[in-house]
Amino acid sequence: MDISLPPAASWKLKKDSAFADMLFGSAAGLFSKIVEHPFDTIKVRLQTQPLPTPTTPALFTGPTDCFRQTLRTEGLKSLFRGITPPLLGSMLEHAILFSTYLALKPIVHTGILGRTLSEPASTLEMCISGALAGAAGSFILTPLELIKCKQQVSTTAGGESATSVAIRIVRRDGPAALFRGGSATLLREAGGSAAWFGIYDSIVMGFMARDGGRGRDQLAGWELCVAGSAAGIGYNASLFPADVVKSIRQTNEEMAVREGMDPRAARGSYAQIAAGLFRAEGVRGFYRGLGITLMRSVPSSAIIVSTFE
Length: 309
Known about the structure:
repeat; L-ornithine transmembrane transporter activity; Mitochondrial carrier fold; mainly alpha; mitochondrion
């Protein structure tokens, strides 16, 4: 399936093509999320562990230690805690992401950049279209990620169901509270999606230009996987600090309860969270869990492009 700019003759997006984009985007999101969720659980726990003090060391020394402690105290099942919201969210996100991206590219190409249909697509329009598509998907992701993160940091046997978490949030703080962390999610998704599509399409077009020029359907599977893996790394690395601050903001109440504090008093603004993190750990604190996130992004993005293409 061609994500680059189509020729003028096939410029108009057909209804069945749009439906296929959403269908295969959903399938790509579903398969990738099943593979990556255990890694995501470790990432969230690393991001949201209490800040270390001179008398209290960090709860986890790194991904391996977090994985070992989680398995020993809670079992293998705990790595999949909170998977229901992201399964749904990933299907919706990727359906919206790919279909919106493909629909926006011709608009950005002609309407924003003022180019003709005969001119080739540029990396700039891929990034702009990706950013807008990512921003659209963030509104679906925010409440689902909020619920997921709260489930992932829970150490209660069996955990709390996604429905119970959602009801508890709405009863206590109202429906708007489901969008806590929305600004950081918007920033992460817009910037990350700009990086993902910009890197992916640029590498794919580079492969297509080899050997005298090839069509997209002539690319080998490994070439698509290389492009997807590089795009996944770019997506996660581009605005990772925003993801760390988001995770803390979405789970600081749960962590406060674990520490015997008033959960309402633990709420803080993005600036307060970032300042506290910097004081405790410096710049390094904003990259908690980056290693395992990049590790999971390689197979995850390879699965996404293999399914979608």
